[in-house]
Write a structure and sequence with these properties.
By secondary structure, the chain is α/β, with parallel strands linked by helices. It has helices spanning about 30-40, 65-70, 80, 85-90, 105-110, 115-120, 145-150, 155-160, 180-185, 195-205, 220-230, 235-250, 285, 310-320, 330-335, 345, 385, and strands spanning about 55-60, 95, 125, 135, 165-170, 190, 210-220, 255-260, 270, 275-280, 290-295, 300-305, 325-330, 355, 360-365, 375-380, 390, 390-395. It has 17 helices and 18 strands. Strand 3 (about 125) and strand 4 (about 135) form a beta hairpin.
Length: about 400
C-alpha cells in the first residue's frame, strides 16, 4: 500500500514552533529604555536586567550584523569576536530583533522602545488603511504624515527632556528622513560621511555632558550582504572595516561610559533557483484572491480581496506551509509575533495573511519587486540567523 502516501497532504508548520522575539526582556525594543532608566529618565524601565547602569551610554548599530554571521567570521572581526563574552551584560547571549527582522521595524523598535505592534512599522511595506495603498516604511513612499503614523515619543526625546545629552551621529542623508523623525529624533543630529568621523564625533558627544545618550549607525555591511551575499569578499571586507570602527570608538570612550554594539537583524543567502525562490507573480494559486502583496521575501503581508481572506489563508498554507509559518492576522497577533499587544491604528496594517520563512527560501515578486527579487542576502523572518543580534559591551 505504498501509494497510500499519495493521499496524505503535508502538514503545515505549527505556529507555536516559531521562535518568538524576547519582547519585554531581551529584544531591541528593550535596549534604550533600559539605558535610559539607568540614567534616571522618568518612565523608562530597565527591561534587560543583565545590564548595569552607566552615566554615559553609546549604542552603535551596525545594519545587518547578525549574531550568527559575527560568530562565523572570527578572522574578519577579531576585535568584535573578543567581545562576544560581554554580550548582554556578560552572559554571552544575543538579543532578538523583533518581527519582522527588517531595518525600518527594528530602528523604530530601538528608537521608541516599543515593539512593532505599538510603534506601527510592522514590515518593509504594509497597507495604509486610509488609502488602501502599500506604504514603504523604509523609503516612506508614498508620502504619509509621519506623526500620526508613529505618534509615540522616542527615548531620545524623553532623555533630552530629562536633561540627558542626547545625540545621533549618522550619515547626513538620514537627517531629515521621515523614518529618522519617527524613530530616532530627539536631542541633536550630527551628520558625518565617513565611519571614522562618526566614531570620533560619537566619542566627543559622549564626553559633552555628565549624562549622555549617543547613537551611531553604519549601513554598508547590510548593503554588501544584499548585493553580494555573506560569502562574498565584499561582505567580508565590510566586516573587517566595521571591526576597526568599533575598536576606534572603544579606544576613545570617556570615563563612566558603556558602549553597546548591536544590529537591526541578521541575514541569510538564498540560492537562485526555482526551489529556493518562489515567484508570486508566476504562481496563479498564490495570486488568487490577493489584492496586495506586502512585506518582503521572507516576511510577507498578504492583503486579500474582500471575502477571500479564508481562501487565501487555506491556499497559502497548502502551497507554502512546509517552508513558511503561515498565519492569519489574528493568529499572528495572538501568537505575539508583533509584541504583547497591537494598537488599534496598527491592526489593519498587518496582512490578512502573514507568512514568515522557516527554510532558506524567498517568496519573490519578479514583476512587482524586480530589484528586491535579485538580492543575494535577505532577512525578515524569525529564524536565528535573522533574529539574533549581538549586544557587545565595552566600558571605560
Amino acid at each position: 500500500m505504498a501509494y497510500a502516501a499519495w493521499d496524505q497532504h503535508p502538514q503545515p508548520l505549527a505556529l507555536d514552533s516559531a521562535p518568538l522575539p524576547e519582547y519585554g526582556s531581551g529584544s531591541l525594543a528593550d535596549l534604550l529604555p533600559t539605558l535610559a532608566a539607568g540614567m534616571g529618565v522618568p518612565g523608562a524601565t530597565a527591561a534587560i536586567t543583565e545590564l548595569t547602569p552607566a552615566d554615559r551610554n553609546c549604542v552603535f548599530l551596525i545594519d545587518g550584523l547578525g549574531w550568527e554571521q559575527l560568530t562565523s567570521h572570527p578572522d574578519e572581526a577579531p576585535f568584535l569576536t573578543s567581545l562576544l563574552a560581554t554580550s548582554r551584560g556578560g552572559t554571552g547571549r544575543p538579543l532578538t530583533a523583533g518581527y519582522p527582522a527588517t531595518t525600518a521595524t527594528s530602528l523604530a523598535s530601538v528608537g521608541t522602545g516599543l515593539p512593532p505592534g505599538a510603534h506601527g512599522l510592522p514590515g518593509y511595506t504594509v497597507r495604509n488603511p486610509a488609502t488602501g495603498e502599500l506604504m514603504n516604511q523604509l523609503r516612506w513612499q508614498p508620502w504619509t504624515d509621519p506623526r500620526p503614523w508613529q505618534p509615540y515619543p522616542t527615548v531620545f526625546q524623553l532623555a533630552h527632556e530629562a536633561g540627558v545629552h542626547a545625540a545621533q551621529v549618522s550619515s547626513p542623508t538620514f537627517q531629515n528622513t521621515p523614518l529618522t523623525k519617527v524613530a530616532l529624533s530627539g536631542g541633536t543630529f550630527l551628520g558625518r560621511l565617513s565611519g571614522e568621523e562618526r566614531m570620533d564625533l560619537a566619542a566627543e558627544q559622549l564626553a559633552a555632558a555628565d549624562r549622555s545618550l549617543v547613537y551611531t549607525y553604519y549601513a554598508e555591511l547590510d548593503g554588501a550582504g544584499h548585493r553580494h551575499g555573506l560569502a562574498s569578499d565584499h561582505w567580508r571586507g565590510q566586516l573587517m572595516y566595521v571591526d576597526r570602527l568599533v575598536q576606534r570608538l572603544a579606544e576613545q570612550l570617556p570615563p563612566r561610559t558603556a558602549l553597546y554594539v548591536t544590529a537591526d537583524h541578521g541575514m541569510v543567502d538564498v540560492l537562485f533557483d526555482e526551489e529556493h525562490r518562489i515567484d508570486f507573480d508566476a504562481d496563479w494559486e498564490l495570486r488568487a484572491g490577493v489584492a496586495l502583496l506586502g512585506g518582503e521575501g521572507r516576511a510577507r503581508h498578504v492583503y486579500a480581496l474582500p471575502g477571500a481572506e479564508g481562501d487565501v489563508l487555506t491556499c497559502w498554507r497548502e502551497v507554502l506551509g512546509e517552508q513558511f509559518w503561515v498565519a492569519s492576522r489574528d493568529e499572528a497577533i495572538e501568537a505575539g509575533w508583533f509584541g504583547p499587544h497591537i494598537d488599534e491604528r496598527v491592526y489593519a496594517r498587518i496582512g490578512d495573511v502573514v507568512a514568515a520563512a522557516h527554510d532558506d527560501v524567498l517568496l519573490i515578486a519578479s514583476e512587482r519587486e524586480p530589484k528586491e527579487s535579485t538580492m543575494v542576502g535577505n532577512h525578515g523572518s524569525m529564524t536565528p540567523a535573522e533574529q539574533l543580534v549581538p549586544l557587545l559591551e565595552v566600558r571605560s
